[in-house]
Amino acid sequence: MNRRKKKPKQVDYIELVQHKIAQIDWKALVRYIQDLWLALPKLHQRALMVIVPIVLILLLLPSHEKSSASEQTDASNLNQRVSVDINTTGLSQQRSDEQQSLKSDVWQEYTVEKGDTLAQVFRNNDLAMSDLNALVRIEGSDKPLSQIKAGQLVRFKLAEDGKLDILQLEKNSQSVMFFRLSDGAFGRSK
């Protein structure tokens, strides 16, 4: 038993319409319209003889005056200059008074003591351990986070929500900075 579905036959609609038009008895249709016309009162016949051509002319002919007037106003609008007030100051420089007073603008410093690990530094300063894990993942081959030493200065800045925003490690005259990206991860600069 063949279970395949047969494709439906393609229908040629143009040929179908031509066939239907050919079946129309035009003489009978004209006689039917004439009978309807003659059944109308004379006043209605005269009114239809005036109204139907006027309506057909109005429908078929576009109004040139309206389209040319709208084209002229469109052309004049294209050539007009419009002043737009745009603040061209960079986003980092656009700080409101509220942003200036936030806790996130204050850097905190911690000097590493003998025996301290970076995990202890994070715990002592109430920083999230998940941030430490994220920082260690991008630490790099020079391992500045894994090799902190006594006397080293650790500076950090908190974001508005209290999470770590920037961490800076200073060793001798060099500095390594880790910063939070817009997606929540961290990036590193030397």
From TrEMBL:
Residues 36-63 form the Opacity-associated protein A-like N-terminal domain. It comes from the Bacteria. Residues 107-190 form the Opacity-associated protein A LysM-like domain. InterPro entries: LysM_Opacity-associatedA, OapA_N. This is Peptidoglycan-binding protein LysM. It comes from Vibrio zhanjiangensis.
